[in-house]
Amino acid sequence: MLADQGLEMLEEKECLDLLAAQSIGRVAISVGALPAIFPVNYRVVGGDVMFRTGDGLKSRAALEGNVVGFEVDDFDAERLAGWSVMIVGQARVVDDEERRLLGNLGLSPWARGDRGHLVRIHPELVSGRRIVGP
Amino acid sequence: MLADQGLEMLEEKECLDLLAAQSIGRVAISVGALPAIFPVNYRVVGGDVMFRTGDGLKSRAALEGNVVGFEVDDFDAERLAGWSVMIVGQARVVDDEERRLLGNLGLSPWARGDRGHLVRIHPELVSGRRIVGP
């Protein structure tokens, strides 16, 4: 369904490799009925996307176990080349015990202020596309 | 509501200036009940975001007049600095007459293949945030 002309679909393995190699992604959630996108810095741990957040829209979506979208991409405007990978999965807040087991993730939020919640998204759907330039 | 610790909220004017200065953004739509994010290259014309797309999820969302999210951002990993701007608005497909009036937008899609639809999003909600680093 996500296939499109001029775009090469990526294998799931390649999508997950690209996902693991990046550090900035974008979370898509619904706020009321409205779509919203928030950039976060993240790490992949055990195949899941993890990022820190404070009290707010993102942590609320995770606390409620919402299904969220998460996208990473990389584009080269000069070469008209690029790719994007998207996962969809349920977001949840990691509890204290799991946090202890995970140890130090080296995951520092850039913005100052309290970022007490660690959110984890397990990819249920994975898709990726690479631009086949003109 | 979108305010968050460590993040400076941007004025609407600054958001729209940043939006007009970029060329790659991300569209957020709902596919069924699932959130999806697609990168596009775009231009701002008359204050509206315009991008080209083929038959698919993005054009279908526009043809149905869906409310979509659109986000642009820029981050500097070394300086731990960056900003993001998000707009929410109804997407619609530009008809042939409006297209003629608009003339050549210089808006070439990167991917080859048919990108016959011109989609226009009028910003109803505008918000932006700048990271205040540690």
Number-wise, the strands of chain A total 8
User: How many helices of chain A?
Assistant: 3
Q: Give average pLDDT of chain A, whole number.
A: 82
**Ends apart, CA distance between termini of chain A:** 23 Å
- Oligomeric state: homodimer
Question: Structural class, from secondary structure content of chain A?
Answer: alpha+beta
In the predicted model, the low-confidence regions of chain A spanning at least 5 consecutive residues are none
Report the order of strands and helices of chain A. Answer: EHEEEHEEHEE
The best one-word shape of chain A is globular
Rg of chain A: 15 Å
Major beta sheet of chain A, specifics?
A: 6 strands, antiparallel, barrel
